[in-house]
Amino acid sequence: MNIEILSISFQSVAMNVLEKSSKVLVQPLCDHCLGRQFGQLLSGYDNAQRGQALRSIVAMSIDKEKFTPLLDMSNFADYKFHNLEVKKIKRKKCEICDDLFLRLGALAEKAAKNSKKYEFATFLVGTKLSFDLIEKEENLWERVGIDYCEPLKAEVNREVGKILEKKLNAKFNTRPDVNIIFDLSDNSVNIEINPLFIYGEYQKLVRGIPQTKWPSRKYRTSVEQLIAKPFMLATRGKEHKLHGMGREDIDARCLAWRPFVLEIIKPMKRNFDFQKLAKKIDKRVKVRKMRSSDIAEVRKIKESRADKTYRAIILCDRKIKKSDLKMLNSLKEIKQKTPQRVLHRRADRFRHRKIKSIKYKYINPKKFLFEVRAEAGLYIKELISGDDGRTQPNVSLLLGTQCTCKELDVTGIHAKSGK
């Protein structure tokens, strides 16, 4: 009984495939467009192979029945029938893709030519179908259904990708160096260059330069520009961006190693020696651990909430005693409103941050060394000054005198290691 049910089920599926194939072939179709309607059946075959097999099955069926209901016989121009008498038939152009698959080689050649000036190891293909091709495909789906089909765009991307892998000596990849876009409305090819990402860690050894370039050019250079210069020359990129794990103030040094990713926009070259180029970076900045990166690591760095350790030289308006510094041990939980100096670019809100550890060293009655480890996002200068009461508690309040940060260094960035 089970064998009979299985046999009936198989016959039903086979008839369904044959019936659908026959419906498809009422208009001239190439093997690709026929096979694509069954693209979700069987693996290890391309659509042209599926189409050729189905066309042969339909041909045998009509030869057996000696009957050709509604079929466009140009679909069988290459077949010799045994029982069915058919006049000599000429093959017609495919009414779904307009014989697009015969032109893929020429399109791939154009893409290879357009991409010659760029250096890349991976690529991804995208296709913009013309309105006419979209309409024809949708009309076919409405007539025969979409039970097992694959979209035309998906097959074009895959098949032209196979050709390009051989021509470009590059690999098809979903996270590519370049995107190759075919516009079938005018047969144009556009090469989109994806950014190059370079991970590293830097120290800023001097005061007075910002981390990133200023659009107003108020500062002649920045950490970003100093690091990017040799890489821009090597890659012949158009622009650059630096994504850092936080940022130090312009007048502060960063003696800790700050993780960053340098993004090169539209690089023409991608193969170079990271360490060799790192040695060419201006000596005001030190870098290490430079290597290839990606956009996922950029997100990770920007979202990181690493603790920071700062060292500050603090000046006091009035004299203090060495014993007064013990008051600073009470700094634990800080309630801080957005500092006045950054209100023009930050929302005015309260933040709560914890102090993890404090060290201090008395220098003279009006000067001392202050070292603090705190959660990410705490403004240290305002922790010292109080910022007109916007940071509570603060160093000035505890010591009973106005205190000012004379020099500030970042000495620790406590990020988790590893990519």
Assembly type of the chains comes to single chain
The rough form would be described as: elongated
Distance between the termini: 60 Å
- What is the SS-derived class? alpha+beta
How many helical elements?
A: 11
Q: Tell me about the biggest sheet?
A: 10 strands, mixed
Order of helices and strands: HHHHEHHEEEEHEEHEHEEEEHEHE
Radius of gyration: 34 Å
Relative helix content: 25-40%
Measured by DSSP, the beta-strand proportion falls in 25-35%
How many beta-strand runs?
14
Mean pLDDT: 92
Give start-end ranges of low-pLDDT stretches: 3-13
Question: How would you describe this protein?
Answer:
This protein has 419 residues and is an alpha+beta fold. Helix content is 31%, strand content 26%. It has 11 helices and 14 strands. The protein has helices spanning 2-24, 31-36, 47-65, 104-114, 131-144, 152-168, 223-235, 274-278, 295-303, 380-385, 395-399, and strands at 122-128, 171-172, 178-183, 188-193, 196-204, 239-244, 253-265, 285-292, 307-316, 333-337, 350-364, 367-374, 391-392, 403-414. The strands form 2 sheets. Strands 5, 6, 7, 8, 9, 10, 11, 12, 13 and 14 form a 10-stranded mixed beta sheet that branches. Strand 11 (350-364) and strand 12 (367-374) form a beta hairpin. Helix 1 packs across helix 3 and helix 4 (104-114) packs across helix 6. The longest helix has 23 residues, at 2-24. It is elongated and about 115 Å long. Mean pLDDT is 92; it is low at 3-13.
How do you describe this structure in short?
The chain has 419 residues and is of the alpha+beta class.
